[in-house]
């Protein structure tokens, strides 16, 4: 199955965005709003994303929220939106409010000891150049390695990590191009749950993401909002709509902005159906 949201269903969703006093647009960052980059500090959003998000925020009618696996403050210079939107970092372990207030879950000693042991393992493998250290989490990235080398790195990392994680009750989660050991107490679905609880029950909500960790948020939002897989290739997912970045993503954001700019009784122009290169796909049952 490709898209379970019909064209009419999507049109209805944007009509709700146009009518509702408040809505929420919740977004993953890497792979969703940006290309992946070997140097993570250079993973800027696709051209056009930042001004669209800024304009959507400026309407005052949509709460824009980022939920990322990175540390929250890493996204501020990349997004270049001032004031920055609300950002949940480390898969929901930390929350950076748009007024600058920062909250983070406390990290217990057993977790710290396990992450230290996992880091020693990476040291011994001489793979520190692939590591990403975050509070309550350690990730290894092999996206830019050749396939054989990536498989080798994965095998050697997991050989040591599995028992360390098991002893400390930490999660090991694979993502596109890497693996991460982290505290099991929060995931993107928990962050989504909190965001929903803070919204009016009738408020339209969408979540856009590309990776396995985004599936937790899709499952929480399922039946309540729009779940959008943003990815060049389709894969099995709990999302009900698939967009190919960047063209279809930009069309989606443009349509969202137009909805926010509508008067409550106005109609929403369907820019995605008029943009030749940015059409949403509705080919039921047809994979790319
Ligand atoms: Mg991602």
Description of the structure:
By secondary structure, this protein is of the alpha/beta class. The chain has helices spanning 7-19, 49-58, 75-79, 109-124, 147-168, 188-197, 214-221, 247-261, 271-274, and strands at residues 23-27, 62-67, 86-89, 94-96, 102-104, 131-134, 137-141, 171-175, 178-182, 205-209, 226-230, 241-243. The protein has two domains: 7-105 and 186-274, Rossmann fold, CATH 3.40.50; 109-182, 2-Layer Sandwich (Alpha-Beta Plaits). It has nine helices and twelve strands. The strands form two sheets. It has an eight-stranded mixed sheet with strand order 5-4-3-2-1-10-11-12, with helices on both faces. A four-stranded antiparallel sheet has the order 6-7-9-8, covered by helices on one side. Helix 3 links the parallel strand 2 (62-67) and strand 3. The chain binds magnesium ion (MG). Magnesium ion is lined by residues 28, 30-32, 209-211.
Chain-wise SSE layout:
Elements: H1 7-19, E1 23-27, H2 49-58, E2 62-67, H3 75-79, E3 86-89, E4 94-96, E5 102-104, H4 109-124, E6 131-134, E7 137-141, H5 147-168, E8 171-175, E9 178-182, H6 188-197, E10 205-209, H7 214-221, E11 226-230, E12 241-243, H8 247-261, H9 271-274
Parallel strand pairs: 1-2, 1-10, 2-3, 10-11, 11-12
Antiparallel strand pairs: 3-4, 4-5, 6-7, 7-9, 8-9
Helix pairs in contact: 1-8, 2-8, 4-5, 6-7
Bound molecules: magnesium ion (MG).
Magnesium ion binds near residues 31 and 32.
